[in-house]
Write a structure and sequence with these properties.
The complex is a heterodimer of chains A (about 280) and B (about 325). Chain A is of the alpha/beta class. In chain A, about 50% of the residues lie in helices and about 15% in strands. Chain A is built from 11 helices and 6 strands. Chain A has helices spanning about 1-25, 35-45, 65-80, 95-110, 135-140, 145-150, 165, 185-195, 210-220, 230-245, 255-275; strands at about 50-60, 85-90, 125-130, 175-180, 200-205, 225-230. A 6-stranded parallel sheet of chain A has the order 3-2-1-4-5-6, sandwiched between helices. In chain A, helix 4 links the parallel strand 2 (about 85-90) and strand 3. Chain A starts with a helix and ends with a helix. Chain B has about 325 residues and is mainly alpha-helical. Chain B has helices at about 5-25, 30-35, 45-75, 80-125, 135-150, 155-160, 160-175, 180-205, 210-245, 250-265, 270-275, 275-310. In chain B, helix 4 (about 80-125) packs antiparallel against helix 8. Chain B folds into 3 domains: about 5-100, no CATH class; about 105-205; about 245-324, no CATH class. The chains are: A alpha/beta (about 280), B mainly alpha (about 325). Chains A and B meet through helix 1, helix 5, helix 9 and helix 11 of A and helix 3, helix 4, helix 8, helix 9 and helix 10 of B.
Chain lengths: ~280, ~325
């Protein structure tokens, strides 16, 4: 009986995930104020010449479902606003995402706005996987020349030869940091060490639904300036991008959000049924 | 482990600990004046050293895998076939990754040659090249540029047009080495050429067989398997929700209600049911949740601090050479 119950539940979950995927059902995401706040701040930010954003994609295949759409919409927004950014990761499994996401997004933008030219080295640089964790993050705000820490990009180009890094030396030129992870331990390092006495970049964080409670304490204390709350945050951000960019090709966040929404509903119903029918067990 | 080795490890652990302790906690002005020199002068080098030591763990891991699994294969121990598959996968991935890295480096070096030409031009302008006269030096630079240009002809044509290559070649040929703006013109041409070459190299690199093999193994297999493993959790959680989320007391009722509210506050169906779910969710996360999490984090951090002190003074359980 127990085995049959389990199989039926598996079937329900599978159906919950498959139905939106097959039918293309997309529900309007819930308004997420914390993701919306990131959007507004990016819109209002004024980047001076030689100022950049740092984007850390500290996720792998395990949390790709939520972190990838988050980073995709954020990178798209940076590119749309012509904000140059530097990508890196402290997680070795992130390598394909560091490469694929900006390429995919740049192609998408150039298709939507043919007059825009997005170019590697000018609009973004990929530093790849960077080992060192705490020591690495501590050394960034202390460094006199950021190019001495990272030296080369993932393609083997010397950083001083890349347009973004030509005049990028100082930590104060990093205007904002966005970090996406579902791993515990990686996020706190940035909160503690990615700042110095003179400068503290804006800090946006993208977490998975499971780690939202953990991230909220930093949001409440204003140690982070915005939060992508799981896939729902990414879907709402994508909705905002849709409003401002008519004709934009939708990303995967809406469909994943709908799939997970249906799956959540199934779980809620299972909790209710479990309490009604399995009370005696 | 001999007593001397243990003492040596303890000594270096203490020195490492005291450096980071002082470097992080003491104000910069104290560090500079009290010690008579900039205390963190070599911080970048020390950090590099730690990262290097960290990377060594990788080599140690590979050696360990080799010892454990190759002995299983050699002596045909139980389930040795899995060890064999593991070793084959390890070597296959290592070979492909290293070849892929070498290929990417080769393209980077080609770009670097053009950057070196810019640097050479700057040196000539500053008068830092002693041999030859100015015109001869400029001639050398021009000849080198033309040589590199020819070597990269196919990449320029593949990205630009046939005419573009001809145009740029003619333009450079026409720049007189004794003209006043020789260096400005040369540098302008190189700077314009680099992004074209970079894209062209990248396009070719992405079509290499080694790149495709890497992508197949890493992105096609490894990443997909990793995602599949994690997605199974969703199914287990659904079963757990049905079986374990039981209302048996006031506390469990509170927990179930909170969980349902937080879920409904995040999904579209919740908003369809009642628009206030999302506000309720934020209140729960910002207030009771934050209070509880802060307490947990504070407790864990105090524990971590104590642990750090124990490790610093090497009084943590005898990791090396436990007493028999």
């Amino acid at each position: 009986m127990k085995d049959l119950e389990r199989k039926i539940i598996y079937l329900f979950v599978l159906l919950a995930l498959l139905v939106p995927l097959i039918t293309g059902l997309v529900l309007k995401p819930v308004k997420m104020d914390n993701a919306g706040s990131i959007y507004t701040q990016i819109e209002e930010l004024k980047f001076k010449k030689n100022e950049v954003a740092f984007v850390a994609l500290d996720f792998g295949p395990n949390t790709k479902g939520e972190n990838e759409p988050q980073s995709e919409v954020f990178i798209e927004h940076l590119m749309l606003n012509k904000i140059p950014f530097v990508l890196f990761s402290q997680y070795f499994l992130a390598e394909p995402f560091l490469k694929e996401i900006p390429l995919r997004v740049s192609k998408k933008i150039m298709k939507l706005y043919p007059e825009r030219k997005l170019e590697y080295g000018v609009d973004w640089v990929n530093l790849g996987y960077q080992p060192g964790r705490t020591q690495l993050i501590q050394s960034i705000p202390k460094s006199d020349d950021l190019r001495k820490i990272f030296i080369k990009d993932v393609r083997g180009n010397k950083l001083e030869n890349l347009p973004i890094f030509k005049n990028l030396t100082n930590f104060s030129q990093i205007k904002l940091l966005a970090q996406f992870t579902g791993l515990t331990g990686l996020f706190d390092i940035y909160v503690s060490f990615f700042k110095n006495k003179e400068h503290q970049p804006l800090f946006f964080h993208g977490c998975t639904s499971i780690t939202i409670p953990d991230a909220y304490i930093y949001l409440d204390s204003k140690q982070i300036n915005g939060l992508f709350e799981g896939i729902a945050g990414a879907a709402w951000y994508s909705e905002l991008l849709n409003i401002d960019n008519p004709g934009r090709v939708p990303d995967s966040s809406h469909i994943i959000n709908t799939m997970l929404g249906v799956a959540h509903l199934v779980i809620i119903l299972l909790i209710i049924f479990g309490n009604i029918f399995r009370r005696k067990l | 482990m001999s007593s001397f080795k243990i003492k040596l490890i303890k000594f270096f652990t203490f020195i490492g600990g005291i450096y980071f302790f002082l470097e992080f906690l003491l104000p910069v002005e104290y560090l500079n004046t009290e010690f008579g020199f900039k205390f963190d002068k070599y911080h970048d080098q020390i950090t590099d050293g730690i990262r290097t030591i960290g990377s060594m763990a990788c080599g140690l891991g590979i050696l360990n895998i080799l010892f454990v699994h190759s002995s299983k294969v050699i002596f045909k121990k139980k389930n040795f076939i899995y060890s064999f598959v593991l070793l084959v996968s390890l070597f296959l991935m290592l070979t492909i990754s290293i070849t892929d890295w070498v290929a990417s480096e080769r393209y980077a070096q080609r770009i670097d040659k053009f950057n070196k030409l810019i640097s050479f031009s700057n040196h000539i302008q500053k008068g830092e090249i002693e041999n030859y006269n100015q015109e001869q030096r400029n001639g050398l630079l021009k000849a080198e540029f033309l040589k590199e240009l020819k070597e990269n002809q196919k990449f320029i044509i593949s990205k630009g047009t046939d005419n573009y290559f001809q145009d740029i070649e003619n333009k450079i040929t026409l720049i007189a080495p004794n003209s006043k703006d020789f260096h400005t013109q040369i540098q302008k041409e190189i700077t314009e050429l680099i992004p074209i070459l970079r894209e062209s190299y990248n396009t070719e690199y992405e079509t290499l067989t080694i790149r495709n093999s890497y992508r197949f193994l890493y992105e096609g297999l490894f990443i997909a398997l990793g995602s599949a493993m994690f997605s199974l959790l969703g199914f287990y959680m659904a079963v757990a929700a049905y079986r374990a989320f039981k209302i048996k007391s006031f506390e469990s009722a509170l927990m179930v209600l909170t969980a349902i509210t937080v879920m409904l506050g995040q999904i579209s169906f919740g908003e369809m049911l009642w628009g206030e779910f999302k506000h309720l969710r934020i209140w729960i996360l910002s207030n009771p949740n934050s209070a509880a999490f802060r307490a947990i984090v504070l407790g864990a951090e105090v524990g971590a601090l104590v642990m750090a002190f124990r490790m610093w003074f090497s009084i943590e359980s005898e990791t090396f050479g436990a007493k028999k």
